[in-house]
């Protein structure tokens, strides 16, 4: 049975190990969280950016966060569940879907979706750094926004500072509103569920979840509509860069991976290939001198002629005997002529 030797690097197509995936995701998330803190910037600059976004939306009549915030503020049955969704689903559902993809889907699907999420998160970090933005809830009260997280804070674990638990508001950057990764991650979850979910509930959740989170981030006054649009655009750019990022990592991995010896796939599995003998034989054939080659060719022609005459010798025994008797006579005549 032919023996096939796996090519070098084939193991990279296998499913990633959880003990390598967890540190990778932890490092990226730690860098993301640390980057949010380092990108706080000047508060006055963040407020200016927030007001510029609000005024631009008002000119285009796309400031959907204003009427939504009024509804969430006036109706606790809507505002409280929205606050719980904003404070939890972003951190629970996204990693849950990531684990589901790791366990249930092919390695190539998981690698692409995981890389897409990580690259998009890093792009969002760049946005926080370059454009710190004050969310609507932190603008002056004259702009008409109410912080529902503070209004309904007694119902949940969060305090008056974003979705951070009480007493930990100093560990988060409240001015990292552009882009909205709440919307970006929810869009990633929806696409993953739509493409790889099999049930009707998975398809429905793929559509409903990103829409609900988009309404939640605006109704709770945590993001502008353009923040949500920028979050979706961030995921689009991340999807375009995920493929090149994967190819780059594979190139770097192959460069630093030790070279593995490979054996030919064809031939007998147990028979050793005596390559040296073949090379020496070929060399001797090429190094034979022309005279030896002529002798060998003449010998082949003589043997061929003898083989063709054998058939006549078998049928004419007497003629062969007569020829054998005439041969000495010819020899005696040659000897007499010599004397």
Automatic annotation (TrEMBL):
Organism: Streptomyces demainii
Pfam families noted in UniProt: PAP2_3
Alphabetical list of InterPro entries matching this protein: Aur1/Ipt1 (IPR026841), IPC_Synthase-Related (IPR052185)
Compositional bias of kind Low complexity: 263-274, 320-339
Keyword Transmembrane in annotation: yes
CDD domains assigned: PAP2_Aur1_like
Protein name from the UniProt record: Inositolphosphotransferase Aur1/Ipt1 domain-containing protein
Mode of membrane association: Multi-pass membrane protein
Biased composition (Basic and acidic residues): 277-302
